[in-house]
Specification:
Layout lengths: L8 H29 L21 H42 L5 H16 L13 E6 L4 H5 L6 E5 L2 E2 L7 H8 L6 E7 L2 E7 L12 E5 L4
Antiparallel strand pairs: 1-2, 1-6, 2-3, 2-4, 4-5
């Protein structure tokens, strides 16, 4: 997510935050596995029709897993905000350093423009105009796999698994990838404001309908 040449304290903080994000997501997956093993979700009752604890599940483990998931989801939201702020700080520092090193020479200005382009598009160095974004994220349900994966409403999608602007034809392609990737990682690249961010989504059944819990909308061509 952060360019290799953009070293410094801000980058180091972001990388540490990313490691913590991965740890939290791993723990959430572990706790969800406890619920799956008991065939319950976040909202299923833990007592039977007579008001007694259900005998078909480990009520203690399920209750503990639910509590941990709620806490971890809050931690995840907080750390995603910190990562976004950190990326903005890294970007600002990079721009500041870049501008400070600039001279009035034309070729130096052109070099700076190249750095800016690489920052906006990732490692390939290609420009990242809006026509590289083929879809956007609509609503994102709280606690959903999309939410836990870091997606936010209005994120513009540049890459979704193997789909990008050059081979995208219909949102159905994305739905097919999700349907065939339950429990598996999907790499997603989005443009949020001026920043390019990479996320890993893991489609799975959860408390609400759908495998991701978000809406994906096709962008109208320019």
């Amino acid at each position: 997510m952060v360019g290799l040449n953009m070293n410094g304290p801000a980058r180091d903080r972001v990388m540490k935050l990313m490691q913590e994000k991965d740890r939290i997501e791993s723990e959430i997956r572990n706790e969800n596995a406890v619920l799956a093993a008991n065939n319950v979700g976040m909202e299923d009752p833990l007592v039977d029709a007579d008001g007694f604890p259900r005998s078909d599940i480990d009520v203690y483990k399920v209750r503990h897993a639910r509590h941990r998931i709620i806490c971890l989801q809050n931690d995840h939201k907080n750390i995603m905000k910190q990562i976004e702020q950190g990326l903005g700080e890294v970007h600002s520092q990079f721009k500041s350093t870049e501008n400070g090193a600039s001279s009035s020479a034309q070729n130096t200005s052109q070099t700076n423009g190249t750095h800016n382009s690489m920052l906006e598009s990732g490692n390939n160095g290609h420009s990242n105009n809006n026509d590289n974004c083929f879809a956007k994220v609509g609503f994102v349900q709280e606690g959903s796999p999309a939410d836990l994966g870091g997606l936010c409403e209005n994120d513009k999608i540049i890459q979704f698994g193997s789909i990008n602007a050059s081979n995208f034809t219909d949102v159905t392609q994305l739905h097919n990838i999700v349907r065939h990737s339950v429990g598996q990682q999907i790499q997603v690249r989005v443009k949020r404001d001026r920043h390019i961010q990479n996320f890993t989504l893991v489609p799975r059944p959860w408390a609400q309908p759908g495998l991701l819990g978000c809406q994906i909308i096709r962008l109208n061509p320019l």
